[in-house]
């Protein structure tokens, strides 16, 4: 499944940032973006590409 979205006309999406890997494993925050593409991987997860502004903080 591969879906393309128009980044300039579709409504914005907001995502929570609840962690990551490496130095970003303690990241929290959110990003507000417009979807560019959504791709389902063979393992069943979804890879989302957005044009966005992110706001986050790192806890040490």
From TrEMBL:
<comment type="subunit">
    <text>Homodimer.</text>
</comment>
<protein>
    <recommendedName>
        <fullName>Dirigent protein</fullName>
    </recommendedName>
</protein>
<dbReference type="InterPro" id="IPR004265">
    <property type="entry name" value="Dirigent"/>
</dbReference>
<dbReference type="GO" id="GO:0048046">
    <property type="term" value="C:apoplast"/>
</dbReference>
<keyword id="KW-0052">Apoplast</keyword>
<keyword id="KW-0964">Secreted</keyword>
<comment type="function">
    <text>Dirigent proteins impart stereoselectivity on the phenoxy radical-coupling reaction, yielding optically active lignans from two molecules of coniferyl alcohol in the biosynthesis of lignans, flavonolignans, and alkaloids and thus plays a central role in plant secondary metabolism.</text>
</comment>
<comment type="similarity">
    <text>Belongs to the plant dirigent protein family.</text>
</comment>
<dbReference type="Pfam" id="PF03018">
    <property type="entry name" value="Dirigent"/>
</dbReference>
